[in-house]
Amino acid sequence: LTRWPGVIEAYRERMPVEPGWTVVTLGEGGTPLLPAPHLSAATGCEVLLKVDGANPTGSFKDRGMTMAVTHALAEGKQGVLCASTGNTSASAAAYATRAGMTCAVLVPRGKIALGKLAQAVAHGARILQIDGNFDDCLELARKTTADYPVAALVNSVNPTRIAGQASAAYEICDELGRAPDVHCLPVGNAGNITAYWQGYKAYLADGLIHTPPRMFGFQAAGAAPLVHGAPVAAPETIATAIRIGAPASWAGAMTARDESDGRFAAVTDDEILSAYRLLSAREGVFVEPASAASVAGLLQSASDGTLPRGSLVVCTVTGHGLKDPDSALLTAPEPTVVPIDPGAVAAALELR
Ligand code: F0G
């Protein structure tokens, strides 16, 4: 067994790095591509989960952050700045710390999950809360880094982030020896779908795959600008990670859809929550609500006939369930209290 070196070293020839740069890595990438028997049975497809919550900070953002922070360090930046619904801030905070750089994050007040905030705090980031949504935060971050270039903007509008995140498509093709027929993703700011499509196209151009997947992107119904074809002024969803009304990578998302014969569709919060529970209770995979949007979309597409039976499907589950413990406990009953007595344990469990 050899050690997984992180996505920059694993795919160095495809990454925008120059010889001599110090690579800032926490060993991201190389995540499981896990068969999902219950989802496969439910859809009549072969469904695999790309479990990107298994990355070092618990989300796919690490794939891009290793590139963005490596680049910022090479450019001599003092620090990094990002807008975030939570995961980007957690990732930026960790990689900046690793690089010995400072990190500041702009987040929508009261709308980021507890685990993500805890990560940014633990890694020593400066946390600035905004009375506004993610879109307001991103605009502010763009203006600030334009006026004060000592800090690098590490949102996915930074092309190095996209190059890093494309690594997930390479891993999937390398493992399968082909591309899936369909790839399902949750979509918020649309950087990830842009990155996957760039990755698949790069492999296609190099003859490493012959047919790229159709890209299916799913947005929360209350935050579905790409489905409606217009920005949403006041996005709302339980899936706070994708509570975004004006995706920065709008053009990239459209290209992915159009070139791949794909589609965008909306999933309701109820559909998201039921997919969320199915993943944890049936497949043993605990994800955060936004990640379950890809699976909610998979189930919806299977039942409305837009997903051909027999397809090989990859669903990326983008973030770990521990990110958002509040959502997990939302409808959970209180744990039973028992005395220190085996009989009481047996009685509580109805053992006989
Ligand atoms: N899933 C999770 C868990 C996310 O955190 C995000 C985005 C997405 C899906 C959507 O990806 O934006 O590339 O379309 N989170 C960003 C953040 C916005 O700030 O952490 P996208």
Overview of this protein structure:
It is a single chain. This protein is an alpha/beta fold and 352 residues long. The protein folds into 2 domains: 7-59 and 161-329, 3-Layer(aba) Sandwich (Rossmann fold); 61-157, Rossmann fold (3-Layer(aba) Sandwich), CATH 3.40.50.1100. Helices cover 43% and strands 15% of the residues. It has 15 helices and 10 strands. The protein has a 6-stranded mixed beta sheet with strand order 1-2-10-7-8-9, sandwiched between helices. The protein has a 4-stranded parallel beta sheet with strand order 5-4-3-6. The longest helix has 16 residues, at 289-304. It starts with 6 loop residues before the first helix and ends with a helix. The mean pLDDT is 97. The structure holds ligand F0G.
CATH architecture of the largest domain: 3-Layer(aba) Sandwich
Number of helices: 15
β-sheet strand percentage: 5-15%
Give the CA-based shape: globular
Strand order in the sheet with the most strands: 1-2-10-7-8-9
The whole-angstrom Rg is 20 Å
List low-confidence stretches: none
Largest sheet: 6 strands, mixed
Order of helices and strands: HEHEHEHEHEHEHHEHEHHEHHEHH
Percentage of residues assigned to helices? 40-55%
Overall mean pLDDT: 97
> First CA to last CA: what distance?
46 Å
Bound small molecules, deduplicated: ligand F0G
SSE layout and pairing:
Layout (H helix, E strand, L loop, with lengths): L6 H4 L22 E3 L1 H7 L2 E6 L9 H14 L4 E5 L3 H13 L2 E7 L5 H9 L3 E5 L3 H14 L3 E3 L5 H7 L1 H10 L5 E5 L4 H15 L8 E7 L4 H4 L21 H11 L2 E5 L1 H15 L5 H16 L7 E6 L7 H5 L12 H7 L4
Helix pairs in contact: 3-4, 3-7, 4-5, 7-9, 8-9, 9-11, 12-13
